[in-house]
């Protein structure tokens, strides 16, 4: 696979790892948050932690739109399918996210709700056209990467004058979440993070520009990084260098797919259809101002929140869950009392266990063997 | 049973009378199943099939699989041949030589008889090629909306030669893990046809009967510890089953695992991992380290094992974890599949 | 998150649609979010839409950096035993 | 497999992950099937079960039945015990002693785990009572609307003692026809629960394993020609199968056929004929005329044959027609069921 | 079963048979039409023909509302379910009746039409109440016995003001069909029938009175007869006696359930809801004037024919079919070339093979062995 | 046609409903088409409705006629050989 395989070369990885090890300064620690689940995934899947020197610590951030979707929003989606009887179209990622009362969209489906998995939001539109007698709602989730296509189908639905289609919008914004993490301790100086591995495909859409104010204000270096393992390693190296040199800039490792401006056409489409929400509740983070989008008045006919008078009901995260601390880099999944017992990927309790890219799920699925004290003997 | 019009296999559909125990059912059995499966056991029209066993057989083996694949027809096969291979392979994985098959059909009212006939002919051909006749069966019809075209449950019996004793509990640290060829072909071929995923690829299902390969393998290395076909849950499921049963760990090497480029590409597109994708004509074998190269050679000499590879080894690990050395030299776990294999966007 | 991969455009249809190819897998996608895509271009595909083009020159530069890094440090630190 | 919460059998439901080959499926198999079916073959966790055969067995027999009954729970039983009896009986009807069962489950997404557990426990109890362990199995989950709660396909293997050779082709004119008890109980018990027919009756399904009765019968009269359990299509189907296979006619005597009053009454209400109604714990036997009284006595001495009766005889008839001498002394045909057994208003 | 078993006593049957044999006059033949399928069924199921002397011949009449339902009406019912997408509720009897294009309601159902079997028309009403978003049509068939309950549910639907329920009315009338048989040859004298076994439960509803004009006009004796085998035998005896004595009266054998007036309450209900149709097409008989009912204007809201603008399209009976001659007593099923080959109960071609109570189906199912020349040897 | 059978009314509900019994089988039916039905009466049941009452005296009379017939002719004509 061109432009993929080259970025997964194990030999080159060892070269990068050696460079990182060579540049790490003795006695110094590098606490780096990879904001995105995509990075978390690469780190786990390729075992990158084994390649990094102990001084470099990777903190998994909240960059998984599935993980951060609050219970109340899933509850509303389930209500739409169960009580309103709509065909609820959703990306498969949301199907197993736990909601109230032990439910999830998958379980609601098992109980008879008409929940349909789509690969593309296009398909939701097609389902609406194929079922004129039914109401169809697309359960839109995602960061900036996934927002433009939702905008596109809303405009298309308007052009087609579709009467039975609407969108339950849950699109959220990356920079706002990064700001929130820095502000969450009251004092940004108390946040024990030295740098950020910045989003890949989000940045393809919004460009690297939007992170500049963040880097400058909080004096934290940000390196926009591709999701391939060599990208991540190189970004770590770039962060180590910035930290060593006391710089705090936005650098772009993912130059092959990210520019400073991003995708103007997609941005224009989003601006036409969506506007900022004052406040949005994130699972694990709580209320974050100006961190999400809603559908503009001009397209209100396609806004499921209005059409079905969806009132958001906040459901507190589980008490035992340490997600909030984990997402800020204060704790590790292993520090949570219910990790791997009551909370597993099959029956997740908290945000970090929900998607395979959450910090706890990644540790459970890929890294749990490190906790085991078993001595290994290779034959 | 004179006085009846032949079944219209061109335009007809399954209706409830085909499962009612009346004339229509008897006719369907006669004109479709008995005709194509074509053996004396079925023609004897008993409630079950009676057969002798070859002399000198050690133990017997029985295995069963219900087949519910969708779509029913896919590149490289259909539910018919799949239902033969799926069970023949389960018999083979115990080290058994499959001898006879039973087939239970659950048909949905409205299912086109032409499709049913096509499936039965495919089953008959697969059974013939495998040398394992379908000697008894059952047909039920469920109302529309209470089935999905056709489900086929096949059960196989076979004999295990004296001395052959395959069991994952016999796996010891140091044993080598082998696979018989490229992984993930079947699952990707199926997914390429799912309405909402549709992508095009030349990948075909690998559905095939493996008892010939197994016989050759056991002939060369009777000390094989265990065999398993990595169907649902893929290689990951088999390795976790092995680890759990054996009470040791498994370590595989990413770069040694045969995965076709198109399978890897489809998995990238859909956010899936080839280690979890289903196969229908592949096996995983465990053998003592000293036999591994010989076993590999025997496998590669067989058409079903042409692309076989040694992919790892059993290791000491009281937790029974499966780990993979990545192409980077790092290690990660290969856990059981959580939930379902669903295409992801993130 | 935001699973997206680079794939080559092999055919353009009207209506902002295109066929892409990735190691023997082909799929129809939408080009409605991008501009000026030609056959042979690589685009970044997410949920059936191209969200941007891949810049081959920048990719080559990145790979060159990697190569340099490997040349410098490649032999220093074999972190794991050689593979079987 | 540590680190997992126990399954919620009280409120949980089947979802697609239970059939995905991942952790949820492994857990369901372990906590439900292996636990209740409880035998070493299943615990061995192989793809199939290996077992030795008793010394001196003549031939083997294999039989399969898919069970799709609705409702799943009915007076006198449920799909669980039915799926054991149905296949044990098919093995028994060949004269075989059933030894082992395989079970394939097709579960519908959303099916309550409590119901599944109840069914599995019932199966386990039926298997235990019959002395026939369920040694291997398979579980699939289909999407909601593509199944009907649960379908169970069971397959049985058994051994046939040397010299026992049951086949309808061996029936000769003059042979006597016997039934082991009252007809139609199962079908009427099921129909009494159908939503749109609902009537109340104390009739319970007769579902039962008959291999004990068969063993006693073969012991007394090894020359029995053929045995069959009159399930779907009822007595009429079995007699027509016999006639067709044997190439002779059958004559039965209405007044000799055991039918309970409530079964007859339900049939009157619904416009059905008890000769076509299904049974699950009855058999039809054919034996030489000179053995008939002795066979009857043996059957009546067995709990499953308490109400046995000689109901007629095979006759010369090149057409293979089944006829019945009515209570009036007139004769009519008893044909195959046409279409389905549906309640009639006229 | 009280009032049933006593009427099925084989010994008594032999007594009755002996009486008939004793009263039959030498050289005379008694061609008796049993109008109803219920009688046909009793004759077949109990083998009554074996008990009757050869001089007595039973001709199976058209008295099965399923058999006589013309193809065009089934086609319309299928259209309702397939094209209009209604829930079509029907008695199971109609499910297998062949329609055009090789279809039947059962096959339409197998192809996805929402056809539901009901035991009572009550259930159709309940289904309409349970599915307010769907249109529900009850496919009403039957003679006078089955008509009053259809009237009852139409009134009930009116009382409930149900908007999604209607009835596709195909109720037909017995006396009109009997008249038609006598008139079908042009000259009633050409009709080779000596007497009629008259309807049982139809008469419970309409009484024996309505046949009096018929008997008088055509000089044919009619004996209203129960459906139990002894009832039929006694009725045959009563007809033999009338014929011997040259009488042509309506006599009532079924006195335990039939009076001269019938069920006045049921009749009033029918009169309130239904009125006579000018003409109705019968399968096997063709167009018969004043032989069926339609829904009155006052209940037109519940008339599916009006609501869905059902236009009856006559579909000719199959050419090879001899039903018309069989129903008039001119031919026997065995005389039809396709009997038992192309035409069987599993794949019926003509009216008489459709329901198990049709003349051809009864002969196929119960009497075919008589055609076989096989010599039987009883062991 | 017009399958209908006599069954005994064993319980009256309001709303013209009743429970009938026939040899151990019970069913709820409608009495809306008939009048003056009491528990113990036999009614003729068709598609879940009573279409009329059964007159026990008339039934007895019919049976008496049969008996007379049997007494007169019962032994004359055994049409089939005696049963097994
Ligand atoms: S293990 Fe579960 S409960 Fe604990 S912090 Fe992680 S997600 Fe929250
Ligand atoms: S056998 Fe069929 S085609 Fe012939 S007359 Fe009878 S119904 Fe008509
Ligand atoms: Mg299996
Ligand atoms: Mg298998
Ligand atoms: Mg297997
Ligand atoms: Mg069977
Ligand atoms: Mg379906
Ligand atoms: Mg069977
Ligand atoms: Mg059976
Ligand atoms: Mg059987
Ligand atoms: Mg299996
Ligand atoms: Mg269902």
TrEMBL record, chains A, E:
The keyword Metal-binding applies. InterPro entries: Hyd_form_HypD, HypD_1, HypD_2_sf. It holds the Pfam family HypD. Keywords: Iron, Metal-binding. Belongs to the HypD family. PANTHER family: HYDROGENASE MATURATION FACTOR HYPD (PTHR30149:SF0), HYDROGENASE PROTEIN ASSEMBLY PROTEIN HYPD (PTHR30149). This is Hydrogenase maturation factor. It comes from Uliginosibacterium flavum.
Automatic annotation (TrEMBL), chains B, D:
Residues 47-160 form the PurM-like N-terminal domain. Pfam families: AIRS, AIRS_C. Residues 172-323 form the PurM-like C-terminal domain. PANTHER family: CARBAMOYL DEHYDRATASE HYPE (PTHR30303:SF0), HYDROGENASE ISOENZYMES FORMATION PROTEIN HYPE (PTHR30303). Belongs to the HypE family. This is Hydrogenase expression/formation protein HypE. It comes from Uliginosibacterium flavum. The lineage of its organism: Bacteria, Pseudomonadati, Pseudomonadota, Betaproteobacteria, Rhodocyclales.
From TrEMBL, chains C, F:
It holds the Pfam family HupF_HypC. Gene3D superfamilies: 2.30.30.140. Belongs to the HupF/HypC family. InterPro entries: Hydgase_assmbl_chp_CS, Hydrogenase_HupF/HypC. Coiled coil: none annotated. It comes from the Bacteria. PROSITE patterns: HUPF_HYPC (PS01097). This is HypC/HybG/HupF family hydrogenase formation chaperone.
